[in-house]
Amino acid sequence: MKHARMIALTALPLLACIAPARAGGEGFYGPLELKDSELQLMKNADAAEDQFVRHSYRYDSPELEAALKRIGGALAPKPTDSYIRYRFFVVRDIETNAFALPDGQVYVNSGLLAALENEAQLAGVLAHEVHHTAGHHGILSYRSARHKAITGAIIGPLTLGVGDYFLEMSVFGYSRDLEEEADRLGLKRMLVAGYDPRQVPRMLQILAQDPEGETLEMKASKWSTHPALMARVDYTQAMLPGVMLGHKADALKVNGSGYRVLVRRVSLDTVQDLIAADQPRTAVTLAQRLVKEDGGGPAALVALGDARSALGPVALLGSEAELTNKQKMKTLRLKAYLTRSEREATLLETPEGRETLRKNLDVARQAYQRALAIDGSIAEAHRGLGYVYKRAGRPIDAGKEFVIYLQARPQAPDKQVILGEMKAINATLKKGGAKR
After folding, report:
1. Same domain, yes or no: 40 and 135
2. Which CATH number goes with the domain that contains 306?
3. Residue 360: inside a domain, yes or no?
4. Which of 46, 68, 112, 190 has its CA 20 to 30 A from that of 58?
5. How far, in Å, CA of 90 to CA of 251, rounded?
6. Could you give the CA distance from residue 434 to residue 436 in angstroms, rounded to a whole number?
7. Are residues 318 and 378 in the same domain?
């Protein structure tokens, strides 16, 4: 799954030269006239909407986009400039991220929607983002960076005013001062719209979670930097008594159950996207949550089975696990230099790895069988069982499950992959390698 920053590859050389020169200070909330050097950048920002559609990057959910429009519309200040027109979209991306462009486009990643607990937390995200646009943070940051680049005699894309600067800046975040300003004003805006701002520190805590054990403490990222997030937890929590003064908390909206129903489909899709992105621990965490929310519904059970099967010989981290940066770096290096298959092969050379694989496959098998006991027509559970039995050294049982799956889904998008698995099983049987 491509992340938002991948869309803006043309701006990466630009980011490298301007990163140290990001604007500090405060935003400007009155009318701000664009300079000639900024017109092309604004055209680039405006083109992002069509670009995301052309690249199939937008997540197709009219219900979600309608909810974002409703919530975001209640939070967005009245535009001060003709070039600002607020509109809200969902992009399919596992990162727990959101970003806003200077012309009013606000994008929320599917991974972020799946992670949040309630509508008030989403309102906190949107309130933050619309203030980046309302305060002209992107334009002011560009002006500051461009001034410093010219003053320092840096010649390159920035001085020419080309590249997707606004998109790049929005995704990676602004200066500490501008981010804190968006948090502070966002809390107040939530109250005006009737949302409970006390959910913001909790939202930031959720985004600081690291099921994969890979987030380095010094890693720079707008919504997922662990130390920056924890600092934001602290100062937003400290702001709340003053923000809430004179307001009745009981009258403020949170809407947990309704929100989780709204994001159920995108959450199920996110489990599969996390598996594809080689983040099985995070996929398991989300799938377990879906099973709990759904009371053991078949779709959630299949998602859990897929996630535990994807873990293979990889163990889940304990809830109290505290990994050092050195340990996290080791994991990141392994992912950088070895394929998933190569890493699994290394783990399977150890007794611990083989036992972990057995346990994960057993949990996956039970999840699939529970799903079929509830709904015998859910073909994806048979596909999952096929992979479980294949990895467990039971090719005959695997073949039977794959056949049932293809009979139920003759036009399945992964039909050719499954046929390849069945061909490999036949080859195994001819060699006499079948247990069952």
Report:
1. yes
2. 1.25.40.10
3. yes
4. 190
5. 29
6. 6
7. yes
The verdict on 203 and 82 lying in the same domain is yes
Residue with tokens 């009371």: 295
Amino acid at the residue 181: E
436 in any annotated domain: no
Q: ∠ CA(138), CA(142), CA(148), 5° rounding?
A: 150
Give the C-alpha distances (Å, rounded to integers) separating 178 from 104, 121, 165, 235, 341: 17, 20, 17, 14, 43
pLDDT digits (tens, 9 = 90+) for 100-159: 999 999 999 999 999 999 999 999 999 999 999 999 999 998 888 766 554 544 434 433
Domain end residue (candidates: 257, 284, 304): 257
**Short-list 298, 288, 268, 310, CA closest to 114:** 268
pLDDT at 143: 87
What is the chain's Cα-based Rg? 24
> Do 88 and 138 have their domain in common?
yes
**What pTM value is reported for the model?**
0.86
The total number of structural domains that make up the chain: 2
Same domain, 183 and 225: yes
Single-letter amino acid code for the residue at 149: A
User: Beta strands 105-109 and 98-100: pairing type?
Assistant: antiparallel
Residue ending a domain, choose from 242, 257, 272 = 257
Residue 13 lies in a domain: yes
pLDDT digits (tens, 9 = 90+) for 26-73: 999 999 999 988 888 888 888 888 888 898 999 999 999 999 999 999
How high is the pLDDT of residue 44? 84
Structural domain range at position 88:
4-257
Please tell me whether residues 253 and 117 are part of one structural domain. Answer: yes
Q: Are 10 and 163 in contact (CB under 8 A)?
A: yes
Q: Are residues 250 and 328 in the same domain?
A: no
Closest among 229, 211, 223 to 288, alpha carbons compared: 211
- Ranges in the chain, pLDDT < 50: 1-24, 150, 152-163, 218-227
